[in-house]
Structures are given as C-alpha cells and as structure tokens.
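Chapter summary example: a protein plus D-mannonic acid.
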Amino acid sequence: MSSDIPPSAHPSRRLSRATLGALPSNVARPAYDPAGVAPGIVHLGVGAFMRAHLSVYTDDILAAGARDWGIVGSDLMSAAPRHALAPQDGLYTLVVRDAVADRLRVVGSLHEVLAVPEDPAATLDRMTDPRTRIVTLTVTEKGYCQDAATGALDEAHPAIVADLQAGALPRSVPGLLTEAIARRRNCGLAPFTVLVCDNLSQNGTKAHGIVTRFAELRDPSLARYIADAVRFPNTMVDRITPATRDEDRQAVAAALGLEDAWPVVCEPFRQWVIEDRFTAGRPRWEDVGATLVDDVMPFEIMKLRCLNGTHSAMAYLGVLIGLDTVAGAFGDPAIAQFIARLWTEDLVPTVPPVPGTDIVRYTEQLAERYRNPNIRHRTLQIASDGSQKLPPRLLEPALERLHAGGSARRIAFVVAAWMRFVLCVDDQGAAYEISDPLATRLARIGRECGRNATQLAEALFAVSDIFTPALLAQAAFRAQVVKDLDHILTEGTRQALAACLAEGPPAKS
Ligand code: CS2
C-alpha cells in the first residue's frame, strides 16, 4: 500500500546507512554491511507485505553470509515507495508486534528501490541484469490483469492493450515479465525464475499461464519458450501486515531517535512454503524458516480458504456492523461463532491433508492471531478488491462442497454480505468507498438495484469475472444468497447473522 506513506521525513535525522550506527542497542540492525550486498532478486510490488515477509527472510539469508541475494524492489503503481525508501538507502524498520510488546529491527535486504511510473526502463534493465536470478512479485490479485473467475489473462484490460502496442515500454506485470524474458533470451542469458507471492490459488501456475498467453499475443515462439523454459513455482505466503499508520511512524521515530518514512508493522507469525523448482539458483530460504516442498497445493488451499476466506468474511461483516478491525470483529461473539462455523462446516472439509499440519490446531492458531489486539488490521482494507478475492477464497470451496454433496451455507451468507457491502453504506448509515478494479461497475449496480435483494443479487451474479457458470448452476446456493441478502437488507446484518447462526449445522456434510 503506498497510500500509507507520507511525502517526506526530515533528512538530517533520517534512517540510512550513514545513521545505522546511531541506533539504540535494543533495535536490531543488519548483521552485515548493506553496502557490500550484490543484487540477485528483482521484486515487483514494494508494499508492506513484502517488507514483512520476503525481505525479512532474505535479510536473514544475507546475515547468514550469502551476500549476492540483495533485492531490487520496483513498484508498478506508485513512486511513493521509492521516495520514502531511496533516501534511506532502502533501510526500514520492521516492528514485530505481539499482544504484549514490540520488537524492532532494521532490515537491510532492499538494495535499491525503483518506480515503474517514473522509469519503466530502469526496472527492465535490472530484470535483464545477469546477476538477477529470481523475479519475485507481490502485486496483489489484480496486478496479474486476470479474469478472477477463470484465472486467464484479461485481454481487454487497458494495461494489457497498452503493453501490446508495437514498441510499447511495458508497465503491466505480464508485459514486464515477457519483455524481460525476451531480452534475456535475445542476448543468450538464462531466464530468471518467477516467484509469485500473492494470494491466488496456484499462484505460480496461474501467472505462468497469463504470461505465456501475453507472449503468444506478441510472438508465438516466445510463448513456447516461456511455456518450456521459464519456471513459476507455486508458493504459500503468510504474515498479517496491516497498512502503516502515522502512530506507527511516530512510535518508530521515538524508539529509533531517527525518522523512518515507512516502517512496517506485522504479527510475529510468518510462514512461507515454496515449490523447489528454480532454474538459476536460489537462496537457502529453508535455513531461515521457509519450507521447500514438491507440491504447495495443500498448504495454499489451507491458507487461502481458512485464513483469507475468514478474513474476507470478517471484513464484510465487520464493515457493515461497524467494527473496523479484525480484532474488533473477531471479538464480537456472533462473528466469532460464525467464523467457527464457516471453518468447520464449509471450509475445513475442502482442505486436503497438509503435511505436518493439524488443521484444527491451525484454525485455533488463526483465532489466536486474529485476537492480537495490537495489530490494527482494518476490515475496510481487507474488504478491498472483493471481486478478485472472493473466487479463490470462498467461491471455489463453495463449488467443491456443493459438487461433493456438502453444504456451503455459511459461504452463501458471506457472499450476501459482500453484495450488501457493494451499496457503499453500512448498517448505521455511514458511507464508505469501495476499492476494487470493478468498483465503478459494482457501484453502478448498487445504485441501480438499491435495496431490492433479488435485483441486486442477480445483477451481481451476472458479473462473469467473479461468478462462474458452474457456481451459478447451483440453484439452491443462489437462492440462499438472495434470501440472506434480503434478510440483511431488511433486518440489518446483525439480525440476519443471528438468524443464520440459529440454523444448526447441515444434516449431511
Ligand atoms: C488479507 C491478507 O488483505 C487481505 O485480503 O486477507 O492480506 C492477509 O492478511 C495475508 O494474506 C496474511 O498472510
């Protein structure tokens, strides 16, 4: 999120390589000289999450002695990350916040920070540098220019149309990756491995399909090369990382005695599961806590559905009821009970066995993480991009449950809550804006259908980027969504939730 970055901080008292020595002893700092690091990774999408996850694992790698894995970060949307971090030589403070205290650490793995809107050529240049062996991505679901329902490239996406113009300097993810791979191939350089770190189901496989299709529209031989020679391992990434607030910045400045324009705050928990399919080498991330596996699928399904699926549920219920953080929403007994039902009745039954993991213990641990009162993770933040998030988190498991003859009763309620959310006003009458690639279309549907549940639901079901024909063919599920939406609109979310909870577990599952 770049909107959480202020314009500038006072340079003379700013965190940087030159001021590292002035840090107080209770703030950990890089156990190596950041100036002596060589780049090995180009990362697209410089937000809070990558700085609490990939950069931290990689900081540990650098500290362990492999100094050729520095990260060149480039943001595709905004120059704000570069303006915040370049004057700090890429350094920033990680605040690991549990229910009791904060632990502060300055991270040194960001070697350089670029901005595609300012200079797309510089990013392409780093991607074609022979030292770059991996390109990592956290560009959010919408960054892939996909049709969320099918996971295919959205060929009508304005960024794709622009990048396919002859001679265009690409700015989209498929455009940049394709162009960089083509340039490397033309000068006889081995391709990098593309490591997708976003919450898509089968994130690497999906991105591989999207990039291959983009290349096909440019040059079929390049598409064949990408299909055959470039690896996109799947990953599961996890660390709850809310957007940085001004209070966080002030607390960090007070603790450091130096300004940090863009610290990042996160929970202690972190998990990273990666398929071990790299063609040009990789850091030994397994030595610093990551898990390297042959197949990420079970881990990814568990996390996307059990964590992200319930996050989205709390986001829509929380916003409508007026609870603005996850801890606040999960602290509400009715919502907590609903989430427990969503896990046990609808989501957990779709999760295959996950090596080394007890799924019940996993959901208990999620509940503990949600309760962390010091992580102020805003429900409205999580509610963003629902059109992209609903399919992998809730609609795919719903369809699986229904095909297996099971229930998707609680998921239907969340879909209804999302439909109600599209009206841009909560149950108390407070207005909010929706942030979503389909925001204009969704808001228009909301305005046109108003509080008529059947019309609103049918108009939203017709958005084919979200709902697949297979799910729409499930008449009972559709009818349940309409019924829940009607209930929410007429009685309010809290009453409708109580009614949903009064319905016991499904007879057969
Ligand atoms: C959240 C995720 O904003 C959201 O949609 O569900 O960012 C979530 O916090 C992370 O995936 C946790 O790893």
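Key point: Residues 199, 238-240, 307-308, 311, 381-382, 389 surround D-mannonic acid (CB under 6 Å).
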